[in-house]
Amino acid sequence: MADRSGDWIEQADRNLAQALSSKEERRHEWACFAAQQAAELAVKALHLKHMQEAWGHVVARLLEELPLEVPEELVDKARVLDGYYIPARYPNGHDEGAPYRHYGKLQSEEAIRYAGEILAFVRARLASEGAG
Q1: CB 88 within 8 A of CB 103
Q2: Nearest-angstrom CA–CA distance, 29 and 38
C-alpha cells in the first residue's frame, strides 16, 4: 500500500477552506458538512500513514481506531462533527424543514473550530512521523 497520506491531508485542507467559504456565504449547513469531511479525510490520512485502511465516516470511531493515543476531548469534538454528516444535507435528517433552516453561524463556527483542531492534531502526528 502506497503512502498517500499527503494527498488526503491536502484534500482535508481544501475541505476546511470550503467550510470557511460556506460559512461566509451563510450556507451554514454546508459549512458544517465540509468541516466534518475535512476532519474525516485528515484522520484517514493518519491511518494511511500507519499503513491502515480506514472505512466509514464516523470521525470519532476513526480517531479511536488509530494506533496511538488520542485525547478524549478531541474524540468528543469529533462526535459533534459526526452529527453533521447526514442531517446537514438531507431534509429527512430533521423532523421538519430543509437542512439549512437548522444551522447557523454558531454551529458552523464550532464545526470549523473542531475540524481545525483535528487537522492540527493530525498534522502534528504526520510531522513527527515524517509525512504530510
Answers
A1: yes
A2: 14
Q: What residue spans define the domains of the chain?
A: 5-128
Summarize pLDDT for 62-116 with one digit per residue, the tens. 999 999 999 999 999 999 999 999 999 999 999 999 999 999 999 999 999 999 9
Highest CATH level, class, for 5-128? mainly alpha
Q: At what angle do helices 28-49 and 72-82 cross, to 10 degrees?
A: 130
- 3-class SS of residue 104: coil
pTM of the model: 0.95
100 exposure class (CB count in 10 Å sphere: 0-12, 13-18, 19+): middle
Q: What nine digits make up the cell of 50?
A: 500507519
Nearest Cα to Cα of residue 1 among 64, 59, 48: 48
Distance CA 66, CA 86 (A): 24
